[in-house]
Each structure stands twice: as structure tokens, then as C-alpha cells.
């Protein structure tokens, strides 16, 4: 490895140094800078930062890929690799590769996703627990996991143990879901996909599990639907479920009304965005790895986002190509797509992906060495070791890759083509066809230089529909592939590119732009000179509103001589948008059926699958969802998910004996650890807020800079020093003002002899304030993560207006302790309707469109 890189890695940067450098790198884009710093900058377990900006990251990645290239003929140089990946312009390694390549501080995989499963029809407790442990072992190494439950015997089946009958699928769904929630991944939570065949007799319970049970909160769920079921839906005929599924001599067999089950799937998807659908016969029919099913490559499930169907113990790494960067003279009448440069770079991207497999094999060897070094008994380590040996075998044998794209929406706009139009769909299909042929050509050329994947056999694949399309489009490529093989068993995907697109400053994946323009707020001091106050929130803080342009929309404005510094009115913005190529091309404008047709047509040139969500408005009907799902099957989509604006995965729970209220599910994490005995001295932060027209204070008692408990009181109007009315027995509260300057010591005084606890006392000693604050402090002391506590507080709908405003102030006080980059679950963006929100300096920021909500 380059010695200069080694020296560079040893230098430690402060968070502020790295943030400021990254802010310059991203030309003032605060969100992109913080996303990179929080998720991808090289750090050790102590939080030390070893990269100042993405430039350091790209040099780290380039050095490692070039090191692997040197092992093969005609290697790419480090400079050539760096030029391809720098500035997120052309080729972008995603997620785990971006974080893990050249990272000496984590023993982790470079794979974004895995699928696991037992050999044979194992539904014993031993087999189920083995999968549970494997799932956890993978998640702790940063991977997302998928597995299928169709092998588990249905509810009520006889078993030879003390239970006498089987419990069915749902309890094990809960087990796997809970395991996912227990595993931390450097600020992320594990991701899990659970699937089941519609042919399984418990499929209806699976479909209802998240909606009715309210416990499967740590997993995405999708139903594997076969063509026979879809035909039964269209014809109105009965459908026979079996266990084992599709068995010629099943142990359990029952006929169901296919239309009724289909309506349930549609209703639940309309209601809660799940289950997703996997059109399984299409997946298997099109799958090149399934040509080797008898050799261990039978596809059984997908990764959590559905874009990579996999066999047991296979994995995949992801990389995206920025389509916008191949538009020359964007947003002008001379704009064109540089297909020659695009094909050249796709070839390099496929090569780099193959290099990353070698880097992954090194990582797996490091994981195996770590397992061997652990002092635990060999029997304890056996499952984990065997798991990684299986993964290593599949990665080395099949060399599966995941080359994809981002910026489809911006590419079309830059060419002056409206997303969702017939012209747009046709152009997109041409781009993806070009990508597929160039990637397969690269893999064939690598087979000549590096050797084909070890089990390649031309005759196995010759009748595969995807191979036949290659033959029809490029006869010479087909002949060479038959003769030399290819380096990789499967190559292509289209994955979600949320943070990737934020850093590339483009639209995400194959999606259209959410909004070309939106407004954000920044907190201001109303007493400052020349400040403009546009909004005062419910706790009295002042905010200035300002316009944020989608990056490429702003580029269109600049190309067309439209001033981007003006604070336009909404009416003026509407007129500007009407002149742009983004007009009628946002996620709210696109015709949904047209989008499904586009996905099906592009799918013909993607050998894995496509992760895409069809966003529909809140007032969309169940019939529309039905049409979209049927259309997706008819046009050849491999999977589809629908999200109706405002739908949510909630449950009905008893709030009290009188009524029930719908509440959001919470992703609860207990990670912070505190002493069991309360310390005698606490340092506290002072946070001011308003309760109706009264000025209040919150004291946040801390241990190791982490909130430990909270109590509140009225402000002293005379000198501005904020005094609590009661303090816990024997406590000295050391605290400072908001700016961290003055310090005040408050000694406990108990003139009335009250024996009270620290939390939540108002000067009125209102029992309701006290009870709710006691709840909040209790959850703090037990280590519940701050974002979960804020969700808990926000979810309380209290009858007393004073208590509601008080609890809003408490939530605001605690928000400042949520680490930047923490994902907010169960909430959606008010601007674009997206559900990918994160906390940033106490505000909620949308990772899809960049809008923020503070207060």
C-alpha cells in the first residue's frame, strides 16, 4: 500500500476540521458534508477521524483497487482508478465498499447484502436457531440479510415434542425481527428481509403479521408469488397451498380463494406499504445463477431492499454509475448522451467490481482469523466459522457483482426529456441495454485474462432468456461468452442510492426528482442585526425561511441565465419550474402505470432485480394498487412495492381502558449504559423553552455527556438565571448556560420537607407533569436511545393543552442530544413524502430531497 496513505491515515482530524473541509468539498452542501462525515469517513472505535474530506476516501479506495489490479494483466493504475471515482462524478462504490475498502479499523465485510438458509427442508428448532445466529453474525459485520421461511411447517402441524403441534411462521418472524433490532452497526441498525411462498399454508398469517401483530418491526416482508397464483387471481379460480411447498405429495394441502388472498395483499400494501411482492417465477426463469441450482445456486430469497435475489450464503457488493455525468452540454439544445464514454466506463466499473471481490475475500479471511483468535470454545465458534467459510466459497466460486446506476431523473432532464414520457422510457431502456452489453463484454474479456468463474458451463445457460437477449443484441458477444465464459455469474442491479445520490448531488437511482425546489428553515436570533424572521415555532424560537434548489435544477437555472440568489415567491417559483425540463416530471407528477412499464422494460436488461417504490398519493384507492401490481407482473417486473403517502405500519393498542389510539411503531434501541446507583453530583445542561406564554427551563442531568435524567421548572424573570423549584435530596446540580460560559451551583434546599424526585416538577407541582417526566427520566436512565424517547414523547396525545406544549418543549430539549445522522423511523418528509429522514443538529432532515423540519 502507498506509504503516503499510511502516513495520512495516522493523522487525526477533529470533527469540525473534517466537517469544514467536507463543506468546502461539497461546495457548501451541508447535508452532503454531514452524511459523508457521519457514515463514510474513516474512523476507529474511539471515534478518531482519519480522513479530512471525501478526497482522502477516494484515494484510499483507489490505492486498494490498484493494488488488486497489479495481480492481473493490463492493470489500471491508481491514478486511473482515482480519476474514475473522484468527486462522485462517474463511478461510486456504495455503502460497505465505500466504508470498508482499505479500512484497518473494522473487521467487517465489504458485502452490502447476504442471503442465508439451510441445505434441505430443515424446519427443526436447531435449523431455525442456526439461521438466527447466522443472521446476527452477518449483521454485526455490517451486512443486510435476507432469508425465506417457506421451509417452516405450518401452524397446527404435528410435532414430536412437548408442544405436540407447530406454532407456524409468525413467532419465528418475531424472533428474527427482534434479533435484527439488537444488532448495532456503527450508527445503523441491521436490515432484514423475510420472505415466504404464497404456496405455503401460513402465507395469509405472514401477510397479516406486520399489520395485525405489530411486532415484526425489524424486518421488511415480501411474498413470493408464482405465475399459477396470478393466473388463479385473473381467472377467479381456487389455488392449492401445500407443505412442503409445491410438493407432489404434500403433508398439508388446502384450497384457498386466490382473489381473497390477493385482495388482502393489496389492502395491506395500501394500508401499510407491506408486504412487498416478488414475482418468483419471473425471478427464477430469468436467473443465470439458477442455471447452476444443482450446484448450490438455487435462489431462495432477496436482500432487504429486494434488488439482489440470492442463493444461500451468497453475497453481493454494490457500485453505482452516475448517469448525469455522461450528458454533454447538459440543459442546452446541444445536449447529448456520450454512449462511447459510458460504455468505456461501464467496462472499468465491472472490472473494479471484480477487484472488490478479491478485497472482500481478504476481509473474509480477516474475519476467519479473528474468529480463530477469539478465546471462546470451538463449539461456540463453529456456526460463525462455517458461515464465513460458506460465504467465502460462494464469493470465490461465483464472483457475483452488483453494478448499477444513479441519477436517471437528472440524466433525462439534462437531455430535455420528460421523465415518464414514452420518449423518456425508450431512452432509459436504451441506456440500460447499453450498460448490460458493456458490462457483459467486460466480464467476458476478464474471463480471457483472469479466468471464468469456476463452475461456468455454456450449455447450462444457452436457453436462458437473458442470454438469448444478449445473443439477439450482440451475436459476437454471445459467441465469445460461449467460448471463453465470463468472470462473474451475475453482474447487474439497480439498488437504492439514498446517501450516494446526496453526495453525488443527483436524483436517486432510477427515480424522478422529488421536488426541484423546496424551502428550509434556519434558526435565527431575532435580536441580531439585519435578521429576517419568517416563522416563530410553538416554543418561541425564530426561524428564517430560505429557498433550496435541487442541484441539477439550479444548474439548469444557471445555464439559462436565471438568477439563483433571489428569494422568489411561490408564484414566481412555479413559473420558473414550468419552463424547466423538471416540469410535470416529479415523483408526484409521473404516471404510475407508465413508471411500472418503464421498470418492466428496464428489467429485461438487469440480470438481478430493481429496487423501486411506487409512491402514490394518500387518496389513491386500493384499486390503483391492484392495477399497479397486476401491471408489474404482466410487464415482467421481478418485484414491486407501493407506498401510499401517509400509510404507516402501526397497530391498534389500548392507550387506556376507555379508548384505543393508533400509534407509530418504534424502532427501540437500548445502547447507553449507566450505573445502577444514581451519582451524588450531576453536571447538567440548561435548555430553555416556552410552555404557552410562560418561559420554562429544562435541566438535562448528564453522565459522560449522555442525558441521564430531566427535570423542568419556570424561569426566574428577574435576572434570567433559571432556578429549579425542587431538587432531589442530597444533590448538587452543576450547570452552565446555553453558551457554556457561566456556571451556577444549585445546592438542594428543602424548606417544606417535601420528599420528591428530581424529574418533572413544576412550581404548581402538577401530578401529570411529574408522572410524565418520571417516565421520560426512567427511560433515559435505562439507556433507551434519545431518538426513541423523542418518538415516545411525540407519540403522546394528551388531553391537556398545557401538558402538550410542555411535553413538546421536553422533546425539543432532548433532540439536541440525538447524534447527527441518526435515522428517524415512522416519520415522513412534509415536502416530498419520503420516509428517509435523519436527525441533524436536533432537526429532522430528509435524505431524499434535503428539506428540514426544526422545532
UniProtKB/TrEMBL annotation:
<keyword id="KW-0846">Cobalamin</keyword>
<dbReference type="InterPro" id="IPR000788">
    <property type="entry name" value="RNR_lg_C"/>
</dbReference>
<comment type="function">
    <text>Catalyzes the reduction of ribonucleotides to deoxyribonucleotides. May function to provide a pool of deoxyribonucleotide precursors for DNA repair during oxygen limitation and/or for immediate growth after restoration of oxygen.</text>
</comment>
<dbReference type="GO" id="GO:0009263">
    <property type="term" value="P:deoxyribonucleotide biosynthetic process"/>
</dbReference>
<dbReference type="GO" id="GO:0071897">
    <property type="term" value="P:DNA biosynthetic process"/>
</dbReference>
<keyword id="KW-1015">Disulfide bond</keyword>
<feature type="domain" description="Ribonucleotide reductase large subunit C-terminal">
    <location>
        <begin position="111"/>
        <end position="643"/>
    </location>
</feature>
<dbReference type="InterPro" id="IPR050862">
    <property type="entry name" value="RdRp_reductase_class-2"/>
</dbReference>
<feature type="domain" description="Ribonucleotide reductase large subunit N-terminal">
    <location>
        <begin position="29"/>
        <end position="93"/>
    </location>
</feature>
<keyword id="KW-0560">Oxidoreductase</keyword>
<keyword id="KW-0237">DNA synthesis</keyword>
<keyword id="KW-0547">Nucleotide-binding</keyword>
<dbReference type="Pfam" id="PF02867">
    <property type="entry name" value="Ribonuc_red_lgC"/>
</dbReference>
<dbReference type="Pfam" id="PF00317">
    <property type="entry name" value="Ribonuc_red_lgN"/>
</dbReference>
<keyword id="KW-0215">Deoxyribonucleotide synthesis</keyword>
<protein>
    <recommendedName>
        <fullName>Vitamin B12-dependent ribonucleotide reductase</fullName>
        <ecNumber>1.17.4.1</ecNumber>
    </recommendedName>
</protein>
<comment type="similarity">
    <text>Belongs to the ribonucleoside diphosphate reductase class-2 family.</text>
</comment>
<dbReference type="InterPro" id="IPR013509">
    <property type="entry name" value="RNR_lsu_N"/>
</dbReference>
<dbReference type="GO" id="GO:0005524">
    <property type="term" value="F:ATP binding"/>
</dbReference>
<dbReference type="InterPro" id="IPR013344">
    <property type="entry name" value="RNR_NrdJ/NrdZ"/>
</dbReference>
<dbReference type="GO" id="GO:0031419">
    <property type="term" value="F:cobalamin binding"/>
</dbReference>
<keyword id="KW-0170">Cobalt</keyword>
<dbReference type="GO" id="GO:0004748">
    <property type="term" value="F:ribonucleoside-diphosphate reductase activity, thioredoxin disulfide as acceptor"/>
</dbReference>
Amino acid at each position: 500500500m502507498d506509504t503516503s496513505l499510511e502516513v495520512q491515515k495516522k493523522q487525526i482530524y477533529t470533527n469540525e476540521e473534517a466537517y469544514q473541509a467536507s463543506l468546502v468539498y461539497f461546495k457548501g452542501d451541508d447535508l452532503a458534508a454531514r452524511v459523508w462525515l457521519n457514515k463514510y469517513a474513516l474512523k476507529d472505535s474511539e471515534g478518531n477521524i482519519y480522513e479530512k474530506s471525501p478526497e482522502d476516501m477516494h484515494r484510499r479506495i483507489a490505492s486498494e483497487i490498484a493494488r488488486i489490479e497489479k495481480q492481473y494483466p493490463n492493470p489500471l493504475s491508481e491514478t486511473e482508478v482515482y480519476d474514475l471515482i473522484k468527486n462522485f462524478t462517474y463511478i461510486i462504490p456504495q455503502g460497505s465498499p465505500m466504508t470498508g475498502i482499505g479500512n484497518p479499523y473494522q473487521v467487517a465485510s465489504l458485502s452490502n447484502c447476504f442471503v442465508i438458509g439451510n441445505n434441505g427442508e430443515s424446519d427443526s428448532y436447531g435449523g431455525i436457531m442456526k439461521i438466527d445466529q447466522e443472521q446476527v453474525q452477518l449483521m454485526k459485520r455490517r451486512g443486510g440479510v435476507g432469508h425465506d421461511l417457506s421451509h417452516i411447517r405450518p401452524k397446527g402441524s404435528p410435532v414430536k415434542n412437548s408442544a405436540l403441534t407447530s406454532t407456524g411462521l409468525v413467532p419465528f418472524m418475531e424472533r428474527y425481527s427482534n434479533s435484527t433490532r439488537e444488532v448495532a452497526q456503527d450508527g445503523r441498525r441491521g436490515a432484514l428481509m423475510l420472505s415466504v411462498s404464497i404456496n405455503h399454508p401460513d402465507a395469509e398469517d405472514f401477510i397479516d403479521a406486520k399489520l395485525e401483530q405489530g411486532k415484526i418491526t425489524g424486518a421488511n416482508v415480501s411474498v413470493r408469488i408464482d405465475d399459477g397464483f396470478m393466473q388463479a387471481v385473473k381467472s377467479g379460480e381456487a389455488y392449492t397451498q401445500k407443505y412442503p411447498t409445491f410438493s407432489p405429495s404434500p403433508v398439508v394441502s388446502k384450497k384457498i380463494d386466490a382473489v381473497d388472498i390477493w385482495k388482502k395483499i393489496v389492502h395491506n400494501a395500501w394500508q401499510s406499504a407491506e408486504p412487498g411482492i416478488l414475482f418468483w417465477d419471473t425471478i427464477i426463469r430469468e436467473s443465470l445463477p439458477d442455471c447452476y441450482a444443482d450446484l448450490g445456486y438455487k435462489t431462495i430469497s432477496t436482500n432487504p431492499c429486494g434488488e439482489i435475489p440470492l442463493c444461500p450464503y451468497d453475497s453481493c457488493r454494490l457500485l453505482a454509475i452516475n448517469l448525469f455525468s455522461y450528458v454533454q452540454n447538459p440543459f442546452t439544445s446541444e445536449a447529448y448522451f456520450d454512449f462511447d464514454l459510458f460504455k468505456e466506463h461501464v467496462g472499468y466499473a465491472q472490472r473494479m467490481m471484480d477487484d472488490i471481490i478479491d478485497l472482500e475475500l481478504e476481509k473474509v479471511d480477516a474475519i476467519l482469523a479473528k474468529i480463530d483468535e477469539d478465546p471462546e470454545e470451538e463449539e461456540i465458534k463453529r456456526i460463525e466459522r462455517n458461515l464465513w467459510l460458506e460465504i467465502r466459497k460462494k464469493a470465490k466460486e461465483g464472483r457475483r457483482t452488483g453494478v448499477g446506476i444513479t441519477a436517471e431523473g437528472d440524466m433525462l432532464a439534462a437531455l430535455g426529456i420528460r421523465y415518464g414520457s414514452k420518449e423518456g422510457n425508450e431512452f432509459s431502456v436504451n441506456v440500460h441495454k447499453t450498460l448490460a452489453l458493456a458490462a457483459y463484454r467486460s466480464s467476458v474479456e476478464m474471463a480471457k485474462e483472469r479466468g471464468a468463474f469456476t463452475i461456468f458451463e455454456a450449455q447450462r445457460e444457452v436457453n436462458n432468456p437473458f442470454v438469448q437477449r444478449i445473443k439477439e443484441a450482440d451475436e459476437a458477444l454471445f459467441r465469445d461468452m460461449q467460448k471463453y465464459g465470463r468472470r462473474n455469474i451475475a453482474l447487474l442491479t439497480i439498488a437504492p442510492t439514498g446517501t450516494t445520490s446526496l453526495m453525488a448531488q443527483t436524483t436517486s437511482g432510477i427515480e424522478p426528482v422529488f421536488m426541484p425546489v423546496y424551502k428550509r428553515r434556519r434558526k435565527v436570533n431575532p435580536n441580531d442585526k439585519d435578521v429576517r424572521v419568517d416563522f416563530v415555532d410553538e416554543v418561541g424560537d425564530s426561524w428564517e425561511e430560505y429557498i433550496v434548489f435541487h442541484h441539477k435544477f439550479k444548474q439548469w437555472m444557471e445555464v439559462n441565465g436565471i438568477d439563483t440568489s433571489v428569494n422568489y415567491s411561490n408564484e414566481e417559483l412555479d413559473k420558473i419550474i414550468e419552463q424547466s425540463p423538471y416540469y410535470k416530471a416529479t415523483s408526484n407528477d409521473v404516471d404510475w402505470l407508465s413508471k411500472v412499464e418503464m421498470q418492466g422494460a428496464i428489467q429485461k436488461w438487469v440480470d438481478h432485480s430493481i429496487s423501486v417504490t411506487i409512491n402514490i398519493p394518500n387518496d389513491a384507492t386500493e384499486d390503483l394498487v391492484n392495477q399497479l401490481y397486476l401491471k408489474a407482473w404482466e410487464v415482467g417486473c421481478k418485484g414491486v412495492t407501493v407506498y401510499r403517502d401517509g400509510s404507516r405500519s402501526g397497530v391498534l393498542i389500548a392507550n387506556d381502558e376507555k379508548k384505543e389510539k393508533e400509534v407509530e411503531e418504534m424502532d427501540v434501541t437500548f445502547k447507553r449504559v449507566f450505573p445502577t446507583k444514581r451519582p451524588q453530583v450531576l453536571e447538567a445542561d440548561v435548555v430553555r423553552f416556552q410552555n404557552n406564554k410562560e418561559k420554562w427551563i429544562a435541566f438535562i442531568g448528564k453522565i459522560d455527556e449522555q442525558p441521564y435524567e430531566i427535570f423542568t421548572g419556570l424561569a426566574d424573570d428577574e435576572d434570567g438565571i433559571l432556578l429549579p423549584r425542587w431538587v432531589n435530596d442530597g444533590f448538587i446540580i452543576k450547570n452552565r448556560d446555553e453558551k457554556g460560559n457561566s456556571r451556577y451551583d444549585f445546592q438542594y434546599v428543602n424548606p417544606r420537607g417535601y420528599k420528591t424526585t428530581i424529574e418533572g416538577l413544576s412550581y404548581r407541582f402538577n401530578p401529570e407533569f411529574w408522572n410524565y417526566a418520571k417516565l421520560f427520566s426512567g427511560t433515559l436512565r435505562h439507556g433507551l436511545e434519545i431518538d426513541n424517547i423523542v418518538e415516545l414523547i411525540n407519540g403522546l396525545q394528551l388531553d391537556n393543552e398545557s401538558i402538550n406544549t410542555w411535553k413538546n418543549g421536553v422533546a425539543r430539549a432532548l433532540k439536541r442530544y440525538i447524534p447527527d445522522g441518526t435515522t428517524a423511523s415512522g416519520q415522513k418528509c412534509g415536502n416530498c413524502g419520503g420516509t428517509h429522514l435523519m436527525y441533524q443538529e436536533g432537526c429532522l432532515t430528509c435524505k431524499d430531497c434535503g428539506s428540514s423540519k426544526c422545532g
